[in-house]
Amino acid sequence: MDKDILLFLQEGTLWSGVLSFLLMMVLAFIPAMPIPAAAGAIGAVFGFWPAFLISWGGAVFGALLMFILSRFLFRNKAYGMIKKYKKADALLHVIENNAFLSLLIARLLPIFPSAVINLGAALSGIKTSTFLLAALLGKLPAMLTFTLAGNQLEKGNWPILILVGLYILAILLAAARIRKVIGQR
Q1: pTM score > 0.85 for this model?
Q2: Which of 53, 74, 150, 177 has the fewest C-beta atoms lying within 10 Å of its C-beta?
Q3: Which residues, other chains included, contact 132 with Cβ-Cβ below 8 Å and sequence gap of 6+?
Q4: How far is CA 19 from CA 33, 105, 119, in A?
């Protein structure tokens, strides 16, 4: 059955695009899931622009859906889930005091899993419109980068892949530095 799903996704049809969008939505709910790897795979199948729209749209819509469900239906359960992460209180405090900027930076740099950011935002007093704008802008570079990487890997365009790899390395180094600073507080 799993092979059938993978073969279906590789067809690059409208319905496999819809399923890929739904996959990206679901990944927004799971802290340890590799959203970048999924975006790269989608990039390899659909071509850059369609893959970018599928990945970015699915990731943002999934984040928004998790935010809304966590805020309005599962608030107590969401609070219990986020408490499992070290520095969760610090994340909530930062989000409440600097809502847009903190969410944007958290999306741009992989400091916390996306699902943790969604939960933290839902538990804070942030407006839904602020959350959505930060998600739209914050997920943009990662989805562009990983769909481009998948697309270029499929084409065998190594110079672009090296540039993408250097960009990813720079982002990871910046995130590691920020994690270190957060850990010292």
Answers
A1: no
A2: 177
A3: 60, 64
A4: 17, 29, 24
